Amino acid sequence: DLVYLGQYDxxxxxxxDFQRSMRPGEPRSMFSHAGAxxxxxxxxxxxxxxxxxxxxxxVSLREEFGQVIGRFTTPGWLAGLRIAxxxxxxxxxxxxxxxxxxxxxxxxxxxxxxxxxxFRAVLDSDTAAAHAYLAAEGSTRDRKAxxxxxxxxxxxDRITEDDLRVLEHQALNDPPLLKLRIAVARAVNSGSAxxxxxxxxxxxxxxxxxxxxxxxxxxxxxxxENDRAxxxxxxxxxxxxxxxxxxxxxx
Length: 251
Hints:
Elements: H1 8-21, H2 32-44, H3 48-65, H4 74-86, H5 90-104, H6 114-123, H7 127-135, H8 141-154, H9 161-168, H10 176-190, H11 192-204, H12 208-222, H13 225-238, H14 241-250
Helix pairs in contact: 1-2, 2-3, 2-4, 3-4, 4-5, 6-7, 7-8, 8-10, 10-11, 11-12, 12-13, 12-14, 13-14
């Protein structure tokens, strides 16, 4: 709930309190749900080293408890994959992807289901599946936000206004994470002035990681030195080597 509300610091404090409150003899697997969401909150708010530490706990829990650590931990693996990919850590990317693939068990999901579309989008980098997933009814809004992010930042693929309207009308209300990412998608379609406003909104919403990549997209659109310096500062603080490389190569 705290991550959904965009209260990332509170979410991390709650997770730490939960860990401290566990009594001797209680199975460590009880932490997996809170840990997965805390990892997502840490990733979004730019606390990447903390996020990776939590994902490594999930790795050990999966090794210890097997299938008890199921699909409900998906947010943690997605957070770990985002950071490992950004830092060009191929060892972690391979390990997290393998674990998520085993947990997802895609073949057990109905053909054409939103679950299958989601995991094809995130595990196979399938943009067609990503767009189909966003258009489909069902699934949780944080997962929808993840796929919006992948299309925008990983694939540099635009999401049309028609598709954004469909996405917005699937639920009565959306968490700040999805609202802000939809705003970024619109800004990418509208131009650099709108994108600069969207970055301000991301900063205010505590989405440090998204703001860094959006700043890189802004710099590539404007080719202004001050925009580039801002993007480089943000990306370097995170250790986002992948986007620093994109910025360098495409400048």
